[in-house]
Amino acid sequence: MGYTIYICSSPIRHLLLLVIFTALQLANGGLDKDFYIVFLRDHLELDEGKAAQKHVDLLSSLKGNEDGARESLVYSYTKSFNAFAAKLTEDEVGHLSGMDEVVSVIPNRYRKLHTTKSWEFIGLPTTAERNLQVESDIIVGVFDTGITPQSESFKDHGLGHPPAKWKGTCAQFANFSGCNNKLIGARYFKLDDFPDDDDILSPIDVDGHGTHTSSTLAGSLVPNANLFGLARGTARGAVPSARIAAYKVCWASSGCADMDILAAFDAAIADGVDIISISIGGLSGNYTSDAISVGSFHGMRKGILTVASAGNDGPSLGGVTNHAPWIFTVGANSINRNFQSNVVLGNGHTLPGTGVNTFEPKQKSYPLVSGMDVAKDAQNRNSSSQCVQGSMDPKKVKGKIVYCKLPAWDADYIVKGLGGAGAIMESNMYLDNAQIFVAPATTINETIGKSIADYIASTRSPTAVISRSQEVKIQAPSVASFSSRGPNPGSQHLLKPDITAPGIDILASYTPMKSITGLQGDSRHSDFTLMSGTSMSCPHVSGAAAYVKSFHPNWSPAAIKSAIMTTATPMSSKTNKVAEFGYGAGQVNPTKALNPGLVYDMDDFSYIQFLCHEGYDDSSLANLVHQSSINCSKLLPTNGEDALNYPTMQLSLKSKQEPTTGVFRRVVTNVGPENSITYNATIKAPKGVVITVKPAALTFSHVSQKRSFKVVVKANPMTSKKLMVSGSLTWKSSDHSVRSPIVIFNPVALATQNVK
Ligand SMILES: *[C@@H]1O[C@H](CO)[C@@H](O)[C@H](O)[C@H]1NC(C)=O
Ligand SMILES: *[C@@H]1O[C@H](CO)[C@@H](O)[C@H](O)[C@H]1NC(C)=O
Ligand SMILES: *[C@@H]1O[C@H](CO)[C@@H](O)[C@H](O)[C@H]1NC(C)=O
Ligand SMILES: *[C@@H]1O[C@H](CO)[C@@H](O)[C@H](O)[C@H]1NC(C)=O
Ligand SMILES: *[C@@H]1O[C@H](CO)[C@@H](O)[C@H](O)[C@H]1NC(C)=O
Ligand SMILES: *[C@@H]1O[C@H](CO)[C@@H](O)[C@H](O)[C@H]1NC(C)=O
């Protein structure tokens, strides 16, 4: 019951399971034995069986016998990297860490989960050009809460057998009817031994999150999708002909364990997926110890791009997760639609509020009270002004609409429980996305709240009615309030997030196993529902990546990512206070990304160079690559400011008195037309910054030709109040525009700027 209150304390209810995960983590912290992931030196020249036996042997040498070893071993990762998960005591971890063949031992941690119209909004209409033959050979792997196989979005109309490269599996499991030619793979990973009464050991999606993200990514066309009449339209994914493989790694009460996520990477890479979409975050380790970072690195080495959500920790700064340079990190932006449920007061005034209120009022008006005036007793006045559970007198609430103040995100649920007629919740945050209410309700801002309070004070018997929600058009895009912002906590030389995509009030498929709010007493079910989060924006970009890959099957993960970033639509720094730290390169534009002209390409060696530059040493890199192949001190000297061929640039100021100069070395590859073509550099420099490019023109005579250039950024010191400024470099030809934002970050400002 305590959890319920937490779950509802945010506008984005479905994301708030995470509070539970944290609690669970704390609860498990005291156990004598814990789960660890142990990375080993050899990188799988062995066959799988032999590698797994080696894991047993290693544990046997530690435990003194094979039985103990087998009991402690939880999983052998043998396909894409060499590691195992085991239940170990701290002493055993100490011993293992000292062993020669052991590279590192990391504790298993638990993470959290972070449409009709959105595709039109970003310019990918149903009529967009498609390369169907190849698209139907594309397999997207979704790591999430599982999937709903019977959903209309996963019907396989017209699709042939899975592509020959597919090596994955699907079977019938509890409550899971099996796969078809659309949903070609489904498996689950749950290596811990904690029971989960709220979930089912099967790829079935009890939560709805995985069904939602998968259908946004690659769902088939479903006409007339809607949530109780709202957001009506044809639901579809970016690549309706692509195949889906679901990897369930997130569980209702335990969250998403690192060892399960790594097992899913190990499997998906070997199964033959093309793109991995992962709307999970919540923890950030460094680049060689974070499970998503390590797993996605191994994917990248096999040509698989991992697209991940940036997190929902905005608007405070520096919360972006999944920020490794080989991951495509996605923030969320609004679309030009909002759901309004208005309040009509007894004095005739209509006041705007936000939210999904599917209830048609039964009466013309209801008595209206302020939470403060319906307290159980004087001591509870403060809590009842926030509609806190247990603070209000049910007799004074019954049949009335109650107005309460932040943080009353669950006021609708609590007021309903007391027999109230509805709730009006005032907040100064997160009003850009619509919460789905369990009773008549709306959320309003502080100005509107003041008018309501004034009205209540002005009359003996105040009344109000809350109208059913309607869609309204709004200005868009802007960065979602909740979307995690930069600067990147993992590196001062790398701009994150990379990009944004629609992540507010996205309509997509849902599970029949949960009511639309998941709250007690809600019996409303729907095949489609609205959700908000970077979890929703992530599959828009995974879908765009699959779309680009269907036209360019041989492009590397870095090339696909570069194409999507350099063609993104820049957003306005006027309406988005921290500019690129909110939106990266801008909003994804899938059709433009098909034809970027030039790409910034990279291979695993480039990323290793970057890590060396960041101060990782040869031994910590061994989680990623065969150790003997790296010698950081050999790699370093002449790599410029970031030692990376990234499509964006970030310079961090090094002094409060002197200008800081950074040299960025870049190589672009021509992927444009066959004939000779010249690109000219166009520079936009903010005040106090000088940016020069050498050479200022690049001429290509054939496809795949590479050209290198150098960008010198010289930035004056900034006041400690100024967090960042930004400019850009755009390579322009007659047909193409290849844009890279350039950010100058002032680290000393971060501490002072980090307001809530
Ligand atoms: C899952 O299947 C079992 C056995 O058929 C059934 O008893 C149970 O109600 C199902 N659970 C859900 C949530 O549908
Ligand atoms: C009432 O609640 C607010 C906000 O939680 C708090 O700042 C204030 O101190 C409380 N006042 C009393 C009298 O408890
Ligand atoms: C509250 O909303 C109203 C109507 O949209 C708007 O005019 C007002 O500026 C908003 N107030 C705040 C504090 O955002
Ligand atoms: C990364 O994290 C691991 C595990 O916490 C640690 O051993 C290693 O030293 C860290 N590396 C860097 C460069 O911070
Ligand atoms: C790495 O390279 C440096 C510089 O070339 C050299 O001095 C050092 O011996 C090398 N280390 C190893 C382990 O090969
Ligand atoms: C690039 O610059 C050259 C020399 O100034 C000019 O002749 C050419 O038209 C420019 N090309 C483009 C595409 O702007």
From TrEMBL:
The active site is at residues 144, 209, 535. GO terms for biological process: proteolysis; response to oxidative stress. Transmembrane segments: none annotated. InterPro entries: Haem_peroxidase, Peptidase_S8/S53_dom, Peptidase_S8/S53_dom_sf, Peptidase_S8_Ser-AS, Peptidase_S8_subtilisin-rel, Peptidases_S8_3, S8pro/Inhibitor_I9, S8pro/Inhibitor_I9_sf. The keyword Transmembrane helix does not apply. Coiled coil: none annotated. GO terms for molecular function: heme binding; peroxidase activity; serine-type endopeptidase activity. Keywords: Hydrolase, Protease, Serine protease, Signal. It holds the Pfam family fn3_6. Residues 239-452 form the Plant heme peroxidase family profile domain. Residues 1-29 form the signal peptide. Belongs to the peptidase S8 family. This is OLC1v1039032C2. It comes from Oldenlandia corymbosa var. corymbosa.
